[in-house]
Amino acid sequence: MKAIAGLTLMLLSLSAQAEELKAVQLYSQDELIGMIRQNTHLDRVVLDKCQLVQDIEARADTLLVPAYQFLWGDMLAWGVCVKADPERGVNFMKQAAQQGLPEALEQLGRYYALGKLVQQDKQKAVVFLREAAGLGNLQAQIRLAELFIEGYGSPYDYEDAYHWLYNAITSDKPTHQKIAHCLSELEKLMHPKAVRAAKRELDS
């Protein structure tokens, strides 16, 4: 009787493990981009017990899917479920950025602005952030404006930066306050005519 009970428990345990393994599905492109925007993508890979590493690498390295290039790059950069290789990780992020993924452009711009993983280069940060900002990434728009206020970048771009932030919509109070501060500081650097032009409707 004990042997049968033990066998039953073992079978139930194996069944539960099999079900758990089966439950982990590869993320869709949209789902992954949503996780990246919320900065939960690395946590999700760990939560899924690193089961999808080979699939992630294949979609990044063979299929060249931008969101997966970014995810794989981040995993390599910080050693999440794989051996850390920051140089290779940043290279994959750059590949995603070259394909126009706003989140990759923003993160590279942030890294160059802060000197994180790469050598600090605020002019290079402006280039990446300008691209991401033009694609509608709010965090990039804010960081770009902050760099302009610090004296980096070109005054010719101030109007665009003001235009994007003036039309930004957010329910997050600290972000709203940050935008208001950036607009106030940018106004001090701009001609009143440029400020009036920047207050046009988005895409007009």
Give a description of the structure.
The chain has helices at residues 2-23, 29-37, 41-47, 53-61, 66-78, 86-98, 102-114, 122-134, 138-150, 158-166, 173-189, 192-198. The longest helix has 22 residues, at 2-23. It has 12 helices and no strands. α6 (86-98) crosses α7 (102-114). The protein is 71% helix and 0% strand. By secondary structure, it is mostly helical.
Concise synopsis of the structure shown:
The chain is an all-alpha fold and about 200 residues long.
List its salient traits:
elongated; 0% strand; single chain; 204 residues; mainly alpha
The SSE order reads HHHHHHHHHHHH
**Into which percent range does the helicity of residues fall?**
over 70%
SS field, number of helical segments? 12
Would you identify the regions where 5 or more consecutive residues have pLDDT less than 50? 18-23
> Mind telling me the C-alpha Rg?
22 Å
Please state the average pLDDT score.
91
% residues in beta strands = under 5%
**DSSP strand count:** 0
The oligomeric state is: single chain
Question: Could you say which structural class the secondary elements and strand pairing correspond to?
Answer: mainly alpha
Largest sheet: none
Distance, first to last CA: 79 Å
Name the shape in a single word.
elongated
Map the helices and strands.
Blueprint: H1 2-23, H2 29-37, H3 41-47, H4 53-61, H5 66-78, H6 86-98, H7 102-114, H8 122-134, H9 138-150, H10 158-166, H11 173-189, H12 192-198
Helix pairs in contact: 4-5, 5-6, 6-7, 7-8, 7-9, 8-9, 9-10, 9-11, 10-11, 10-12
